[in-house]
Amino acid sequence: MTTLLKVGSIAGLGLTVLPSVLVFTGRLTWTTHAVLMAVGALLWFATAPFWMVKDEAAHRQATE
Amino acid sequence: MPRDHGATITDRLDAINEFDREPVSDEHLQGPGNFIGFYAGEHVAGTEFVIGPLFVAHGVSAADLLSGLVLGNLLAVLSWTFICAPIAVRTRLNLYWQLRKITGPKLLFLYNIVNALMFCFLAGAMISVAATAVGIPFDIAMPGLTDLYPSTVGWVVTVLVVGAVVTLLAILGFKQIARFSKIAAPWMFLVFVACGVAVLPELGIRSVGDFWTVANAKIWTGTPLEGRVHFTFWHVVFFAWFTNMAMHIGMADLTVLRFARKWQYGLFSAFGMYLGHYVAWIASGILVALALQSAGEIAPGPIAYRGAGLAGLAAVVVAGWTTANPTIYRAGLAMQTITPNWKRWKVTLAVGAITSVAALFPALMMRLLDFVALYGLILMPMGAVIFADFWLLPRLGLRQHYADWKAIAFSWPAAASWGVTLAACWAINAAWGLQIFFLGLPGWFIATAIYVVLSTMQQRTSELVRAGHGGGNRA
Q: CA-to-CA distance for B140 and B133, rounded, in angstroms?
């Protein structure tokens, strides 16, 4: 499950930054870029809190 | 130090488990991830959408900006690492309880009022920034570069709503704030990058090779807007170095770095400096250059929307929150020593209310460079006092924490260091025209020297008096 969440987070970050590069190279319109960035944001915040908090808890346990 | 509220206060603070008045214990130290997240979150912030554009307004040239930021940010990281962090990990106390031992409670009271107000104004600027994004869907008119006062009811309502939410999050405490910053930081940074990259074609940059030519011709042109001072390489270096002067050489981040396992964790401030105060400032400069070129709105919300649509707006809001939250948290700590019998949430609520009112005034946001320089300068001398008290006094055979040891309520050497340094900085500015961005450096040395000299006088005089009275007793 954690792996799946991490993949979702990476995809979210990818959708945040890669479309702008495609706009720069003329392969994507600005409107599509904006939509993909919004999807990327949703994906990041829907997945990252779960594994980031879990990682932090595990790290804390290991160091205590 | 008299503890006139004794066990009651301690019990209350134990209950909220924040270690505000006691050194942080080993089991509550935090690892590198928390500090990377904290610094990246705090410095990849909504205000970067203002500072980057203000460099453009001040007519920095491209070469001066890019090289000046490298050097200035390096100096800032070194200041955190070698000045603030070593004291933080040795004392494990926050700024206010560390200062109380040096200044005595009455001077600390005065300092805390100033400190809390400065933090409130700073957090207010961040709330203003977030409000420029929240207001867009409601078609609320945004403040312009020259606006100083709130001009519409819509702006007032938006700011107050954003202020209320930010205050609520700040009440939750440091760990929750750090966690939120940590989660948002990677995404926010990439939004800044994406915003900047996506609008490059509109400025005429269609390949990497075009960048330098267009950057000099259309973005960082070397020509300031009307009414703005021209910024040189040295302006950029000193501004980047001293943007967070209150935090590093002013020692406010003792409060944060007391949780660090090692003093080297100060180096993690580089994540904030080079992501936020380098890449994000460049990206927001690009965005505002486009807005100026097309006579569009230059407030953070509109320029972020232009770069990334809804995700850009969300980033401005989140960035404003993640920066305003720790600032309100710090202000809450400052106020807590003024009102020791108030619960933490009540203090933070009061701070949040002041902050939200301050945020109503766009002047804070549109004159952010000047305000940031001023607030750092005002708070910095007390950081120099802590540095001198911790490192220099023992080497000179003098006692650290003299006010605490003698139960002095108002340390005149510390007060004089603070007041005379600010007066000296004002005199330097008036006599030689040295701008506020540069005053922190001479000011730090002035404050350190004054404190050492006056402490020597105070402690030697005290010894003589004691000797003259046959040894005497501690007050």
A: 10
Say which residue the tokens 């962090």 belong to: B85
Helices (H), B172-309: 174-198, 211-214, 233-242, 254-257, 269-270, 281-293, 300-308
Q: Closest partner residue to A37 among B179, B205, B309, by Cβ?
A: B309
Q: What is the pTM of this model?
A: 0.85
Residue B310 touches partner A, C-beta closer than 8 Å: yes
Q: How far is CA B254 from the centre of its chain?
A: 13
- Per-residue pLDDT of B124-152, as tens digits, reads 988 998 888 888 888 888 887 778 888 88
Among B29, B84, B16, B4, smallest CA distance to B333 is for B16
Whether residue B214 lies within 8 A of chain A, CB to CB, comes out as no
What DSSP character marks residue B25? P
- In angstroms, the separation between the Cα of residue A64 and the nearest Cα of chain B is 6
Q: Does B28 touch chain A (CB under 8 A)?
A: no
Contact between B126 and B327 (Cβ < 8 Å): yes
Cα torsion angle, B285, B288, B292, B293, sign: positive
**B302 vs B121: CA distance, rounded Å:** 23
Q: Provide ipTM, 2 decimals.
A: 0.91
Q: What is the pLDDT of residues A2-58, one digit of tens each?
A: 899 999 999 999 999 999 999 999 999 999 999 999 999 999 999 999 888 766 665
Q: Give bridge partners of residue B260 from the DSSP assignment.
A: B30
Out of A24, A41, A59, closest to residue B187 by CB:
A41
Alpha-carbon distance A37 to nearest alpha carbon in chain B (angstroms): 6
Question: Band of the pLDDT at A61, cuts 50, 70, 90?
Answer: low
Of B29, B183, B210, which to mutate for an interface test with A (greatest number of A Cβ within 10 Å)?
A: B183
**HSE, side-chain direction, 13 A CA sphere, residue B200:** 26
A53 touches chain B (CB under 8 A): yes
* Cβ atoms B348, B332 nearer than 8 A: yes
Query: What's B274's DSSP letter?
Result: I
Q: Which two tokens mark A52?
A: 């980031």
Q: What are the DSSP calls for B120-166, one per residue? A: HHHHHHHHHHHHHHHTGGGTPPPP-TT--S---HHHHHHHHHHHHHH
Q: What is d(CA B126, CA B296) in angstroms, rounded to the nearest whole number? A: 22
Any chain B CB within 8 A of the CB of A64? yes
| Contact predicate B107/B410, CB 8 Å | yes
For residue B468, the tally of other CB atoms under 10 A from its CB is: 9
Closest CA to B445 of B171, B249, B236: B249
Are B240 and B22 in contact, with CB atoms under 8 Å apart? Answer: no
